[in-house]
Amino acid sequence: MLLLSAALASTPPPIVNGDITQDFPGVVLLYATDAGGNLAATCTGTVIAPGWVLTAAHCVLDDGSFSIDQIYVLFVDRLSQAGGSNSTLASQWIAHPDYDPVTAQNDVGMVEFPALGEAVPIYDTPPTTTDEGRQFTIVGFGATDETDTSDPTKRTATVPLKLYDESFYYTDDPSQNGCFGDSGGPLLRVSAIDGSYAVVGVMSWVTGCTGGSMASGRIDQQLDFIESFVTPTYAD
Which tens digits make up the pLDDT trace of 171-216? Predict the structure, then answer.
């Protein structure tokens, strides 16, 4: 339930060389358990409307190594802070019906929970060539390397957009990247004018936690799916 690696590994990916942050309150930790109440996986998500979290499809689906019985939405900066007041049991979770685990197409999902939360706007404008080289922000609860098993902690980093296609934004930084547990977290476009931010992508897969390359699914291509559940706020 973390970032998919290269040919889409079955294990989830923190942000490598990112900074620990207490900002971005709309970015939440998703904690999935199996039927025995054991941890199945962790992922990252973003509250985009009252009671709804946007995440990756592979974060809300069973795979060969685990099955999901419950998902908790945690409003924390690290897992060890979780408790009754900041942990909410999700009422349902839905993957995009056309999600393809081989190609990672349509790797987007929604989680409903009985609470509000600070919603983050989404950016529905398609990218252009002028966006290539632009700095984007990633936020997630992922590992800091492929062997990290420490307390999932919210981290952030700024990475440049290398290119894009009809489905993904591709970022590439030799020292900073997503990793296990960052799956489903936001790729954010931050305003240079007032510092406001909006979700443009959902972190999907990496070529290696320390390899620098990551693909995030384009939100502007998923509006029909998202709007079938909520009416999000759109960034200017």
Answer: 988 778 888 889 999 999 988 778 889 999 999 998 878 777 899 9
How many whole angstroms separate alpha carbon 81 and alpha carbon 67? 25
Sign (positive or negative) of CA dihedral 115, 86, 76, 90: negative
H or E stretch including 74? strand 70-74
pLDDT digits (tens, 9 = 90+) for 26-79: 999 999 999 999 888 899 999 999 999 999 999 999 887 778 999 999 999 888
Nearest CA among 1, 98, 7, 108 for reference residue 53: 108
Q: Do 172 and 157 contact (CB within 8 A), yes or no? A: no
Match 């941890």 to its residue by tokens. Answer: 39
pLDDT (tens digit, 9 = 90+) per residue, 5-15? Answer: 333 333 333 45
Q: How big is the chain, counted in residues?
A: 236
Residue 150 has pLDDT above 90, yes or no: no
Q: CA angle 72-13-142, nearest 5°?
A: 65
CA–CA distance, 142 with 124 (Å, rounded to integer): 26
Nearest to 214 by CA among 202, 222, 223, 226: 202
Backbone angles phi, psi at 173, to 5 degrees: -140, 130
> Which of 77, 65, 71 lies closest to 152, judged by CA?
77
What mean pLDDT is predicted for residues 120-149? 88
Q: Return all residues near 191 (Cβ < 8 A) that are at least 6 apart.
A: 197
Cβ-based neighbours of 79, under 8 Å, separated by 6 or more: 29, 31, 42, 141, 151, 152, 153
Tell me the two tokens of residue 228: 């079938």
